[in-house]
Design goal:
Layout (H helix, E strand, L loop, with lengths): L2 H16 L1 H6 L7 H16 L8 H10 L7 H13 L4 H11 L4 H15 L7 H13 L4 H11 L7 H5 L7 H15 L1 H6 L7 H22 L1
Helix pairs in contact: 1-3, 1-5, 3-5, 3-6, 3-7, 4-7, 7-8, 7-9, 11-13
């Protein structure tokens, strides 16, 4: 049974009137947390895609890039996105319930915000309403301001992704401190590590992009240090 079939079942129950709380309650434990994570990205992504007033083809495509979807699952994935887009539940309610579900896994919440940034930037423009949306979701998730700034720097061109911001170190950090931070991030963000902590295998594209950004930041830093 593919993850998209399980997600479609969960969202169908939601649209049938079972209620958001009941659906998420059934997804609290592994392995269904990967389903909950995917629903969270879908639901918030569908709502954020309308934050700038228009759901573009690029944003729908970005959703498909965040989650690598087999051809056999394309129809099921499209159904999931459409169900989430039609739901009238406010995004803050979704975000609050998701925050409670993953309160013991703050890294999962960070992963979720990262997926939303990917969708927000799909059309090449970071709209002020999208920024307000993401900032509010990060607040509900109790996300550290530095972590949020790091994600925004990686995804939004105008914020200049400085290597020390991506690596999470001080601007005057030593090369040894930068190397240690880089190695720590590589271990923590390896695709296998993300799957182990509950991300669905379909979301591995996010991990691959993150590794590229981390390695590029280290290369830039180490090159400047010479």
């Amino acid at each position: 049974m593919s993850i998209w079939f399980r997600i479609s079942e969960a969202l169908s129950a939601l649209t049938a009137g079972e209620g958001l709380s009941a659906v998420f309650d059934r997804l609290r434990s592994p392995p269904e947390r990967s389903v909950a994570f995917t629903i969270a990205v879908i639901a918030l992504g569908a709502k954020m895609a309308k934050a700038d007033g228009l759901v573009t083809r690029d944003e729908v495509t970005a959703f498909r890039e965040v989650f690598q979807i087999a051809e056999a699952d394309q129809q099921g994935a499209a159904k999931v996105f459409n169900l989430a887009r039609q739901d009238v539940t406010g995004f803050e309610d979704y975000a609050a319930r998701i925050a409670r579900m993953f309160q013991d896994q703050p890294e999962m919440l960070r992963d979720l915000i990262e997926g939303l940034f990917h969708i927000a930037m799909a059309d090449g423009t970071y709209h002020p309403n999208e920024d307000a949306f993401l900032t509010r979701v990060a607040e509900i998730f109790a996300m550290d301001d530095g972590d949020f700034a790091c994600l925004r720097a990686r995804f939004v061109p105008d914020t200049s992704p400085l290597p020390h911001t991506v690596l999470g170190i001080a601007p005057n950090a030593t090369t040894e401190e930068a190397r240690a931070a880089w190695r720590r991030l590589v271990r923590k963000n390896h695709p296998d590590a993300l799957v182990a902590r509950g991300l669905p295998e379909e979301a591995i594209a996010m991990a691959q992009k993150r590794m590229i950004d981390i390695n590029r930041a280290w290369e830039t830093w180490s090159g400047k240090a010479r």
